[in-house]
Fold this sequence. Notes:
Blueprint: H1 48-61, H2 68-79, H3 92-103, H4 117-121, H5 125-128, H6 136-154, H7 160-188, H8 193-221, H9 227-252, H10 259-265, H11 268-277, H12 285-290, H13 294-304, H14 308-329, H15 334-343, H16 345-363, H17 374-385, H18 402-415, H19 419-428, H20 436-447
Amino acid sequence: xxxxxxxxxxxxxxxxxxxxxxxxxxxxxxxxxxxxxxxxxxxxxxxxxxxxxxxxxxxxxxxxxxxxxxxxxxxxxxxxxxxxxxxxxxxxxxxxxxxxxxxxxxxxxxxxxxxxxxxxxxxxxxxxxxxxxxxxxxxxxxxxxxxxxxxxxxxxxxxxxxxxxxxxxxxxxxxxxxxxxxxxxxxxxxxxxxxxxxxxxxxxxxxxxxxxxxxxxxxxxxxxxxxxxxxxxxxxxxxxxxxxxxxxxxxxxxxxxxxxxxxxxxxxxxxxxxxxxxxxxxxxxxxxxxxxxxxxxxxxxxxxxxxxxxxxxxxxxxxxxxxxxxxxxxxxxxxxxxxxxxxxxxxxxxxxxxxxxxxxxxxxxxxxxxxxxxxxxxxxxxxxxxxxxxxxxxxxxxxxxxxxxxxxxxxxxxxxxxxxxxxxxxxxxxxxxxxxxxxxxxxxxxxxxx
Length: 450
């Protein structure tokens, strides 16, 4: 009978890529080449015996003495996560849970509109408020559409830190969900363009705060093996929200003068669902840990992982990494951390690169990012005036001209980009090739000019 092979001797294709150990330049743990961008596992600085002692002391000193032995075994797994088969301290059930987790990366416990309403509303609300002339009126309509993104970036993104500090992740998401529930309803009842502008001004603050918090919340809750995919899933759901927003526009488009009010107001539905659903989600274990509530944080992690050994491993290792971060931060406050975006060379380069990409994306004429100014807000106007959209004559007349059909097909290819990055992000870090959907979008948009 064949001898059972240990975990590290299995088929190499099923194992995650193991980067080489970085060569350290000094006792502080700095690498000679920052280009490697490899983080050292702090637990490997200690012996196995000391790792177990430290983990047990952590559990006992934070109100979890009944789990001290569990944390000791979990620390050994976190110290060398790909060789847990060689850890004799694990029992059979724990070893089987870790093997199953490795082989089924999406396995876990069973728990469970984007602002495109203004797209259809652009066809009628300017007439309601007398904004039909050239010049100033066009600027007013443009500002009403753009203000949510301006306030999202200039205000909403900068208040995320204090909101998360005082209200936690769930509390911050609930507050922004309330804002995003009230402001669409306020937009629907607006009596003037100034009132509509004010409602969308506040809406943008909520969007900015919510968009910055949800990826953090997802990252802190998700297992490392699928963290990249889950964090990026918000992009897929933005596309789904845009689709639902267009559906809502079509449903109410024939309701007469109030159609634009219904189109703007319908955006409260997903935010209302978000505000209700967040109460059924556990708080971020990392946030609870950072605020000294380790026992609550571990209980939250137990809800998020399929087995206690997995929960203890992830929670303890998260605490170890957090202690390393504290050593580097040296008690820096909000403004000091904000200044790091410009003072720390690596962060500054990333900041400049991201800012350049976003600016170029917004100024290129037809932004290829789904929640862009051009597509979700003005697509109905473009279709009506340039693409010869003939919904009223359907099915007797043409639905699209040849040129518009080509472009719409390109957009459809772009919206189908979901699977590719999510399937490779956690296995190969960043996708090496540009998204096939983006290539098709570019090709069809260019061909449409012929």
